Amino acid sequence: MRSPINVLYLSSIKSIEAGASRSIFDLISCLDRNKVQPFYASIYEGQLTESLEKIGAPYLRLKSGNIFHPILKAFALPDLVHFIKHNKIDIVHNNQCSDAYYSWLPAKITRTPMIIHHRDITLDRSSKFLINQAAANIAISSWQNQHNLGNKGVVIHNAIDVNKFPVQPFLDDKYGIKEVFQIVGLIGRLVPEKGQDIFIRAAAQVVKKQVNTKFLIVGNDQDKIFDQYILSLKSLVKELGLESNVIFTGFVQNSYEIIPYFDVSVIPSRREPFGRTIIESMACAKPVISTNVWGPTDIVTPETGFLVPPDNADALADAILELLGSTELRSKMGLAGRKRVEDFFTIDAMMEKIYNLYEEIVKR
User: Fold this and answer.
1) Which member of 29, 235, 260, 340 has the lowest number of beta carbons within 10 Å of its beta carbon?
2) d(Cα 289, Cα 280) in Å, to the nearest integer?
3) pTM of the model
4) Given this model, what pLDDT does residue 22 score?
5) For the chain, where do the domains classified as CATH 3.40.50.2000 start and end?
6) Residues near 223 by Cβ (< 8 Å), separated by ≥ 6?
7) SS3 111
8) Could you give the 3-state DSSP secondary structure of residue 270?
9) CA gap 52, 57 in Å, rounded
10) What does each C-alpha distance from 309 to 77, 269, 317 come to in angstroms?
11) Residue 74: per-residue pLDDT
């Protein structure tokens, strides 16, 4: 029996709230240790690091003079070179392109092949240099592979453990919502690119025709970095007279704890590299409405939901009203969505592609 491939995963993310951090955690936690032995390096000690240490991924804390300055990331070089050599690392797997600033030179010095997992929204000039240093570049959507990687990457979509996501709806009144109300939900970080402001403006149109509708905005509404945007959202709710219709739930650790309450799941992002919430909603058999940007175009089909233009509250409101007006359509789309996730976006399918890529790189 051949020994496992030693893979060093590198990520500069502190929390586990964002899609990129949840995706790297899922990847590492689902590894078959007979095939891959994971190691982990980061400039941060935080929730993500603690979670990975609990599942047995040896950890290296990286030094950095300035996390935003590529040259000063050279502070991490000696420790990374030693760690790669000492642990006989076979592959360095960067969770995002920006992480490769730390690893490309240590990988070159130790002659260790490097992978870049492109979860970033956009690339800068220096990213092109890093892309050319990689043994493989993984794109999480076809759009990203085409526009950011010139179709030279390997498309491996993000995935979920479908078994964690219940198909049956939750009917209790945890959020103080009576059974007579229909629920439209949005899950995501409260940042401008996620389009919560458009969601609120669409809600104002919907409640004029569907009074018994509640809108859940799920995400950390205490984030001090984006406090001005969050404040503007709450002011907009008040301005539009939606205080009794819009609920800010705060951060919810696991999406499968709240999606089953939804009748419709909305992803109104202005930019979306993939759209993890989309496949999570579809796994719960919920019809989805997403903007037709980037990653969602790989996921949403006419059988599973609607794609609408970004920054268009009118189109979003029309799509919500169409779904709220037909129990049969919601059910039909929801079941089709569940099947699509089972066919294309499972952890097993993703891991098989990852293993094949690792094997190919090691054989080179």
Assistant:
1) 235
2) 13
3) 0.89
4) 81
5) 5-159+346-363, 162-344
6) 189, 190, 230
7) coil
8) coil
9) 6
10) 44, 10, 12
11) 60
